[in-house]
Amino acid sequence: MLFLTKFPKRNAWGKRFLIGEYLNNIWQSGLDLLFPSPALCSICGRKLSIGALLGLCQSCLEHMPWVGAVFCQLCGRPLAIRQRPSGEARCSDCTRTQHFFVRNRAIGIYTGSLKEQIQELKYRYNRQLGIDLGQIMGLVAKHRQWVPKTAHLLAVPLYAERLRQRGYNQAELLLDGLQDFLQVPALEPGTVIRRSATGASSHLGPRARRANLQGVFQVPRPGQVAGKVLCVIDDIYTTGATLDELTRTLLQAGAQEVYGLTLSIAVDEQDLLGHGPSFD
Ligand SMILES: [Zn+2]
Ligand SMILES: [Zn+2]
């Protein structure tokens, strides 16, 4: 008897509580619709103005080391001196290396706050940041007409094991954000696969880095890239070894030509000091 009298009371109280919570939730979601809380900058957490198109605030955007007007016409690396009207500026790396891609363009320099954000994106699971940075890539690339109109976008693939560990491919997130501002079709993930992990290669010289990457990419169904102009999306361009090897594989599979667009590019001090670049 004791059980029968006590249990319904507890149950009734619980029900009232749940209904209260339910009504409260409806009221709250109504308020959220009327007065949506402002989005926050995905770097510093400041409130963004209502209707803001980008996920980063003005201050964070101003502190990014963007690539200026003077850069290597092949790889997009910033240069210190002005391009001669008669010739194409080249960075010291591109004067030594034969690239397979038509050209690469980079939005920012891999240093300071942009370097920090790329680390955050790759190693601290901040997916929204990837989309927000991709939007900036889309805006800049659209304004500077860096992606050919006929191109299909393609994110540099991660090795399957790395993808499982991280849970996402940062280049795919950049591509998703980019498409908010640049209406260019993209190839499905899996069009190109990465057959093995190449590991950290920052300690390797340019030649060893290239040897390390040879044969790492594969196009399982070449018909998906045959005859297409492709624009490869990645988070960083260092020596161009990754983009070159991917381009070589895509051209072998029948792609027409390959361009690159990266969020950042590593800078050679020599180029910024003005001793490196030469002109054709
Ligand atoms: Zn901010
Ligand atoms: Zn270059």
Give the structure's gist in a few sentences.
The protein is an alpha/beta fold and 280 residues long. 41% of the residues lie in helices and 13% in strands. The protein has a single domain (58-279), classed as Rossmann fold (3-Layer(aba) Sandwich), CATH 3.40.50.
Description of the structure:
This protein has 280 residues and is an alpha/beta fold. It has helices at residues 2-34, 58-62, 92-96, 112-123, 127-144, 160-166, 170-178, 206-213, 241-252, 269-273, and strands at 89-90, 104-109, 152-155, 193-194, 217-218, 229-237, 257-265, 278-279. It has a single domain, classed as Rossmann fold (3-Layer(aba) Sandwich). The chain has ten helices and eight strands. Helix 5 (127-144) packs across helix 7 (170-178). It binds zinc ion (ZN) (2 copies). Residues 41, 43-44, 46, 56-57, 59-60 line the site of one zinc ion.
Largest sheet: 4 strands, parallel
CATH topology: Rossmann fold
Structural class: alpha/beta
Number of domains: 1
Tell me the β content.
5-15%
- Ends distance: 98 Å
Bound molecules: zinc ion
Mass-distribution shape:
globular
Total of helices: 10
Average the pLDDT over all residues and give the rounded result: 85
Q: What's the number of extended β-strand segments?
A: 8
Radius of gyration: 24 Å
| Series of H and E elements | HHEHEHHEHHEHEEHEHE
In which range does the helix fraction lie?
A: 40-55%
Under the CATH scheme, which architecture would be assigned?
3-Layer(aba) Sandwich
Unreliable segments of 5+ consecutive residues? 1-10, 275-280
CATH class: Alpha Beta
Strand order of the largest sheet: 2-7-6-3
